[in-house]
Amino acid sequence: MNPVTINSVEAILVDLPTIRAHQLAMAVMQRQTLVIVRLRCSDGIEGIGEATTIGGLSYGEESPEGIKLAIDTYLAPALAGLDAANIHAAMRRLETVARGNRFAKSALESALLDAQGKRLGVSVSTLLGGAVRASLPVLWTLASGDTARDIEEAESLLASRRHNTFKLKVGRRAVADDVAHVSRIKQALGERARVTVDVNQAWNEADAAGAIARLEAAGVDLIEQPIPRANLAGMARLAARFVVPIMADEAINGPEDALAIARLGAADVLALKIAKSGGIHEMLRTAAVGDAAGMSLYGGTMLEGSVGSIASAHGFACLPRLSWGTELFGPLLLKDDIVANPPRYADFEMEIPSGPGLGLELDEDKLAFYRRDR
Ligand code: MUC
Ligand code: MG
Questions:
Q1: pTM, full prediction
Q2: Catalytic site residues (predicted)?
Q3: Ligand 1 atom showing the smallest separation from residue 225 Cα
Q4: Residue whose CA is at the smallest distance from ligand 1 atom 9
Q5: ipTM of the complex in this document
């Protein structure tokens, strides 16, 4: 029997507006740019994937435009003609033609998994060995930039039972202002909600030590990436000094980072993301290292739309332990969607689709409307 081969790969830039400004330490987002991949195979099956980052080049080393260029120029030609059913071999080929470029590789791996799942009539999590949960806890990020508005937003999401954990983005303002902002929100929500803080590397170690002491006293549950990613020794000192757990986000991409963090004790929790790791399989390898070292795991997001969020969800569903839940709320931050069957959220969780592949169907009209080159 002739193998099913990869015929073509298309990378499409899609610009979607956000429901409100989303303020992070390094960028204020008014829209999100998704890179949607359509991978077509010789049996007529199409797989879809997504690579999405935050704030152009301000978050990481790959921009949406750069991801498209890497796929169009280097990665798609390397995949052409390969066996579409052998995902490990295809990904190894990509490793030989391109260093890094993890976001781009992740989108292609998702598309290959989606196509193979459709081909076999099973979901991506089934293809990965099986999901240990049918839904995932999902938090919401409060990042309007206004304390009163954030409290109002949290109250309404608690009342509708959509989220009961809130992550606050800090690092744009003076440290004292950030601490006051977080403390007011935690005080307003009390024991009804968990509150976490993401600094996105914005503090130095001395500022972080002072701020974390006050945030811990205010009842904050988790501190994410307080200082620059390269300062693992500083992260280790903070993790040793405080009871409130410290989570690594920008500091961890793949398994090697997990190993370095484990060796130094540089975090209590790891934020896993399929894009940072270079795909679902690499995310699972990264998780295994963290898990073996006794660290807790968290399912992170690059604020992907439905395709990337559901690909992540299939991966996170397979983790034996995921004690900090996930932040796969990306589709809810966007005003519109390019899939016909967006993910469902209820009772503080996101449902993982059980249909073949990712379980998603593109809405061709919406895709045509929001694609940048229309
Ligand atoms: C990050 O750094 O964690 C995740 C949620 C959010 O609001 O921003 C992202 C990125
Ligand atoms: Mg983060």
A1: 0.98
A2: 169 (proton acceptor), 327 (proton donor)
A3: 2
A4: 302
A5: 0.98
